[in-house]
Structures are given as structure tokens and as C-alpha cells.
Write a structure and sequence with these properties.
Structural class: alpha+beta
Low-confidence stretches: none
Helix content: 25-40%
Number of helices: 4
Largest sheet: 9 strands, antiparallel
CATH topology of the largest domain: TATA-Binding Protein
Mean pLDDT: 95
Shape: elongated
Length: 182
């Protein structure tokens, strides 16, 4: 089993039908709202360390969390702070994980040219002059893995932690079976 570290979880939810962003900005200490640059509020919290984007439509995007539990904690914190400001919002909204970014280290150098051929050129993009990593599009689970010559893997596009684990372990097993791990 390859060790996997969650680097970022992005999730969305809706806390109402229309938010008064100016009122929320005034009420939330540290909220950033510059509508000329970006149509939503950027609100960062320290624990868990996340940034939440709040939009007029009532939609929220939480990013920077290191776990799904942290996403739930961060969104609850933002909701309670918005409520404390006297703004009416949905208290327990449904939260949808949109993307999980994770990293792994196979702890061995990888020959990306050999891997590109082994994995099949229809699922792989590898142009070392453009980008130092090999881009591997996996159908099941539907994720994209970036493999680097150092043995590091970055996996993105998953919506469940189990999908990241499955993808990384499948890659490890494919490379091992093909004799591409030292």
C-alpha cells in the first residue's frame, strides 16, 4: 500500500438563495470583497486552514482543506459566523466534494519514457519539453495522475478518498507488473 497525502479538498454547497455580500463583508472580520476583481467574497479561516468563496447566488466554494472532515468543519464555521452577523442562511446544507488533490511518493526514480509506452499512448501525455511530468488519464476511477521522474505522483479529479487510494495503488501495481519499479 502506497502512502497518500491529501493536499487539497474542494467542495461546494449552497447556504441560501441570495446573499448580501456587502453586509457579510462588513460583518466578517477579514473577509475580502472587491467586486471589480472577483464576484465573490474570499474568507479565510485559520482552523482548519481554508479559504471559502461566498457568492451572491448563495453558493459557497471551500478550498484548501486537508480532509473531508476539515471541509465540513470549515463550512460549519463560516455558516455560524455569517449567522452571528444576523444573516439568515441554511444551517445544514448538503456539501458536495468536487475535487481531491493528493500526492504520493513511490520512493524510486521512474523512467517516464518507458512508462508512457507501457501505460499506452492513448491514455498518456508526455512531452518533457513542455512539462516534466507524465499525465495519465485513468478511466476507473476517473482521475488524472501526474507522474514525475522522482517517483512522486500527484492525483487530481477524485471526489472520494477511496478513489485516490485505488488509482495510486493501481498505478503502483501496473508499474510493478511491467517491471518499471526498481
Amino acid at each position: 500500500m502506497v502512502e497518500i497525502r491529501i493536499e487539497n479538498v474542494v467542495a461546494t454547497t449552497s447556504i441560501g438563495s441570495e446573499l448580501d455580500l456587502r453586509a457579510i463583508t462588513m460583518a466578517l472580520d477579514g473577509a475580502e470583497y472587491e467586486p471589480e476583481q472577483f464576484p465573490g467574497i474570499v474568507y479565510r479561516i485559520k482552523e482548519p486552514k481554508t479559504a471559502t468563496l461566498l457568492f451572491k447566488s448563495g453558493k459557497l466554494v471551500c478550498t484548501g482543506a486537508k480532509s473531508i472532515k476539515d471541509v465540513h468543519t470549515a463550512i460549519k464555521t463560516v455558516i455560524s459566523r455569517v449567522e452571528e452577523a444576523g444573516i439568515n442562511v441554511i444551517k445544514n446544507p448538503q456539501i458536495t466534494v468536487q475535487n481531491i488533490v493528493a500526492s504520493s511518493d513511490l520512493k524510486t526514480d521512474l523512467n517516464l519514457n518507458a512508462i508512457a509506452i507501457s501505460l499506452g499512448l492513448e491514455k498518456v501525455e508526455y512531452e518533457p519539453e513542455q512539462f516534466p511530468g507524465l499525465v495519465y488519464r485513468i478511466d476507473e476511477p476517473k482521475v488524472v495522475a501526474l507522474l514525475f521522474g522522482s517517483g512522486k505522483i500527484v492525483c487530481t479529479g477524485a471526489r472520494k478518498v477511496e478513489d485516490v487510494e485505488k488509482a495510486v495503488n493501481n498505478i503502483y501495481n501496473e508499474l510493478k507488473t511491467a517491471g518499471l519499479l526498481h
